[in-house]
């Protein structure tokens, strides 16, 4: 079969970017701090559950976190649980050879700690129903994970640049909303990993912009317009997302202001002079979409404040 222009570009990019991957991998390893999940879990609060050990069954009164924080913790953990699917997706895009493969395995190992520590915390503190959590995990992993961008390198790299930052924001704000200093400390540690992952991917795609500006700009625009969090297949995700957004843990304003805009600014997409043709068109589409998203975020904030004011008036 003849090689398509897209395949030819992808091969060219993978070869050209390998030194960048090696450089960013070394930077990451120099900055990443070793940490141990067991040190962030208050084990002294633990006790046996019902079942073979004949302990105490879980009940909602045992949870010390708010309903909103509980929903966000569940979404965050179930998202982390699908790591096997993410590993397969990223390995399919980046490959398993050289610095690319080393990064994929390192990233996977670091991400695995996140699921370990969050689950241990939730189980020990009885923050969520462990039976419902396990059933949700089984369902979510049986659904699996399929990246919307398939094995296309530019789309994949653009997606994780935004997604890692979105996850960092979600973890940090969940910790703050929990009302538990232990939870906040734990999720701040997880968020620090996510930030380093974002920097790796952001710098990688920034280098791709220099090599293939028009094609990379098109990929960025398509990813931003179609963006979904990796946990979107979680059962009840829409309902949980509304709860999380209403609590200000992760909403359209945060997505626009704290995720999309900082990454796009770092890439300098609106200041570039090397775009033409479809690259220029993609940038115009991106600008229009950001304006629409900004307006939608403002509308949501206004309605949320109105709802909060009505609730305060009723309770007052």
UniProtKB/TrEMBL annotation:
SUPFAM superfamilies: Ferritin-like
Cofactor(s) recorded in Swiss-Prot or TrEMBL: Fe(2+)
Acetylation found in the keyword field: no
Entry keyword set: Fatty acid biosynthesis, Fatty acid metabolism, Iron, Lipid biosynthesis, Lipid metabolism, Metal-binding, Oxidoreductase
Pfam assignment, any one: FA_desaturase_2
Alphabetical list of InterPro entries matching this protein: Fatty_acid_desaturase-2, Ferritin-like_SF, RNR-like
Subunit text: Homodimer.
Name of the protein: Acyl-ACP desaturase
Superkingdom of this protein's organism: Bacteria
UniProt record similarity statement: Belongs to the fatty acid desaturase type 2 family.
């Amino acid at each position: 079969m003849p090689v398509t222009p897209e395949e030819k570009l992808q091969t060219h990019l993978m070869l050209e970017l390998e030194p960048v991957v090696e450089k960013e991998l070394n930077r990451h390893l120099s900055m990443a701090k070793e940490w141990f999940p067991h040190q962030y879990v208050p084990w002294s609060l633990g006790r046996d559950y019902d079942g073979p050990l004949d302990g105490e069954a879980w009940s909602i009164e045992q949870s010390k976190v708010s309903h909103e924080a509980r929903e966000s913790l569940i979404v965050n953990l179930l998202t982390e649980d699908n790591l096997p699917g993410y590993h397969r997706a990223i390995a399919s895009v980046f490959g398993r050879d050289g610095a690319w493969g080393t990064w994929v395995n390192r990233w996977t190992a670091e991400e695995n700690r996140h699921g370990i520590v969050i689950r241990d915390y939730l189980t020990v503190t009885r923050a969520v129903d462990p039976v419902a959590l396990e059933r949700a995990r089984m369902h979510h992993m049986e659904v699996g994970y399929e990246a919307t961008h398939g094995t296309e390198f530019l789309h994949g790299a653009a997606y994780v640049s935004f997604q890692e930052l979105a996850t960092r924001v979600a973890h940090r704000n969940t910790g703050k909303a929990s009302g538990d200093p232990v939870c906040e400390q734990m999720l701040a540690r997880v968020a620090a990993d996510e930030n380093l992952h974002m920097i790796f991917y952001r710098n990688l795609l920034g280098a791709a912009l220099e090599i293939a500006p028009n094609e990379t700009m098109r990929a960025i625009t398509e990813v931003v317009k179609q963006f979904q969090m990796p946990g979107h297949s979680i059962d009840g995700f829409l309902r949980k997302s509304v709860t999380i957004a209403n609590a200000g843990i992760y909403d359209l304003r945060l997505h626009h202001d704290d995720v999309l805009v900082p990454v796009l600014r770092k890439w300098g997409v609106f200041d570039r002079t090397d775009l033409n043709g479809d690259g220029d068109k993609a940038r115009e589409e991106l600008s229009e979409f950001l304006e629409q998203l900004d307006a939608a975020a403002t509308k949501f904030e206004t309605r949320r404040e109105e709802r909060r004011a009505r609730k305060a008036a009723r309770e007052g």
